[in-house]
Design a protein that fits this description.
The chain is of the alpha/beta class. Helices cover 42% and strands 12% of the residues. The protein has 17 helices and 16 strands. The strands form 6 sheets. The protein has a 5-stranded parallel sheet. 36% of the residues are buried. About 9% of the residues have low confidence.
């Protein structure tokens, strides 16, 4: 159903309320003028698929209808040449290439800059907390780069042991060490003519920093146990949730490597700083996970909507996805309550403080959430991370960032 929001006899919201009682799964798109956008946003909270602001391009409406009827996520705009087609950020609430760009000012600016960066050949350093979508940004850059038809190689520097990372990156020759039974091509060499993405770059050792710097300077690598160097031409993207400038001051990260990696820096804002995007993301995930689990599309109670908007989301989009999937599976009568989300704030019946309350900051809220999780797990950071749906590296970083005393969190 396509409906105007303002009509002479019945309002769009009144019509939507009646339609939900008769055909609860009918997709609804609203056409809205500037003055009725708040009503359209309310409709989205209650289950409408999307809204389009007037005046609008009829082709945009037709595309939205086709996407809904085909039960697929809206396809990305087709690029012209090597640059991505510009997305209409004023109307879109869609996922492009698996990443939700959003309507918040910070994400609009990130989208604008990322488009320009993708078409260049510069190295890029992507910064952001765990769960914000750093790898999605890296994939997007490669997809719309001049190297898009060549390999895209991902290296998880955080989970690969230091003793193995050298062989993984640079490769080795047969017999160069005990278990080297054959020659191996390293991941840097495999990325020749393409893109190399170094995730969690802040975790590599000093020795690896030196070797990586040498490669970035002269584009030459030498396999472990080899004499001859190999020329490799690839674009390097890197990402981290660590504070590299602080690590440089402490002597843990090389300054010259930092400047080689950060040709251009992109910073993804955390979810708590883009609250206007939370409900749109929630609607997308509700549709996706309801379909994945072959269940009717779930409904969110008003209390659940309030929790989604006011929770600080220390695990960012990853935590939101996990919470909503859990809610879909656990809810009764197809209605998700705060307890169904399996969030610590809901289980303990403690609301997260808003950043607008005097005396509190977003950092305070996040710190208190982490402290509660640590107290509940008797100071075991691994268990607290699982409770918060964030990575171990992320909780170690935040404990250090907020100077949390683990001893004070133990019973």
């Amino acid at each position: 159903m396509i409906s105007d929001m303002k009509m002479p006899v019945m309002s769009g919201m009144d019509l939507f309320t009646e339609i939900q009682q008769i055909l609860p799964h009918l997709p609804v798109i609203f056409l809205t003028a500037y003055g009725t956008i708040p009503d359209a946003v309310t409709a989205l909270k209650k289950g409408a698929v999307d809204y389009i602001s007037k005046p609008f391009d009829g082709r945009v409406l037709v595309k939205k209808i086709n996407d809904i009827l085909s039960e697929k996520q809206p396809a990305k705009n087709q690029p012209t040449g090597n640059q991505p087609a510009m997305m209409d950020m004023s109307n879109t609430s869609l996922i492009e290439d698996g990443f939700y760009w959003g309507k918040s000012p910070g994400m609009k600016e990130l989208y604008r800059v990322t488009q320009k960066v993708a078409a260049s050949q510069m190295s890029v350093l992507i910064l952001g907390e765990s769960g914000v979508g750093k790898e999605c940004i890296a994939k997007y850059i490669h997809r719309y780069s001049l190297k898009k038809n060549h390999p895209y190689i991902v290296v998880d520097c955080g989970s690969t042991p230091a003793g193995i990372l050298e062989s993984e990156l640079f490769g080795h020759m047969k017999g160069s060490f005990t278990h080297a039974i054959q020659d191996k091509t390293g991941l840097i060499e495999a990325a020749h003519k393409g893109t190399l993405f170094l995730d969690e770059i802040g975790n590599i050792s000093q020795d690896m920093q030196s070797r990586l710097l040498r490669f970035l300077e002269d584009k030459q690598i030498r396999r472990v146990g080899a004499i001859k160097e190999i020329h490799v031409d690839c674009r390097v993207l890197s990402a981290t949730n660590a504070d590299l400038t602080a690590d440089i001051e402490k002597g843990n990260f090389r300054q010259d490597l930092y400047y080689r990696l950060k040709g251009i820096t992109l910073t993804i804002p955390p979810l708590r700083e883009r609250k206007e995007d939370i409900l749109a993301l929630a609607n997308l995930f509700l549709t996706k996970y309801s379909n994945d689990h072959h269940l009717p599309r779930a409904i969110l109670t008003d209390e659940t909507l309030d929790l989604l908007e006011n929770y600080t989301w220390p695990g960012n989009i990853r935590e939101l996805k996990n919470a909503l999937e859990a809610g879909i599976v656990l809810c009764k009568n197809n209605t998700i309550t705060p307890l169904d989300l399996q969030l610590e704030a809901a289980r303990s019946k403690v609301s997260q403080p808003s950043e607008n309350i005097p005396g509190f900051s977003i950092g305070d809220s996040e710190k208190e959430t982490i402290i509660r999780a640590l107290k509940k797990t008797n100071g075991v950071q691994k268990n607290a991370a699982e409770l918060l749906n964030i990575s171990r590296r992320s909780i170690h970083y935040k404990v250090k960032k907020y100077d949390i005393k683990i001893s004070e969190c133990k019973r």
